[in-house]
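Minutes, structural biology subgroup

Action item carried over from last meeting: produce the structure token record for DUF2721 domain-containing protein (Maribrevibacterium harenarium). EB confirmed the sequence was re-checked against the source entry. Recorded below for completeness.
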Amino acid sequence: MTISLTTPAMLFPAVSLLLLAYTNRFVTLASLIRHFNPDHSNEAVQKQIDNLRKRIYLIRRMQEVGVISFFLCVVSMLALYWEYEQVGSYIFAASLGCLLYSLFLSVREINISCDALDVHIQTFYSKTPTNKK
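Output recorded by EB:
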């Protein structure tokens, strides 16, 4: 299969927007963590902190793999520019693989985020008095 110089360039907007979204997630989590009060530590807070640690780790990995994808995309364009079509195609495929892995990590992070919301909802159930008849 022959790809042109513009094929890897089509990924630039997508990867850039993904990196921006990942950065926004990271900033939001950092803000949440800064607002935790260590004096009010209980089991629910510990679960939330564990979830936040997992999410931060995943977001960092998502950002790293996204940047690697972006880098490989540029290298692919250089290879195609220098008329190394086969090499450029393989590097572009590696870039797509990194992008897919980054998206997979994003789905995992979303699942952990849902788990964190479940923990938060459970605290409401534990504080709500039960209706007894």
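Discussion: The chain has a mean pLDDT of 90.
Next step: EB to file the record with the rest of the batch.
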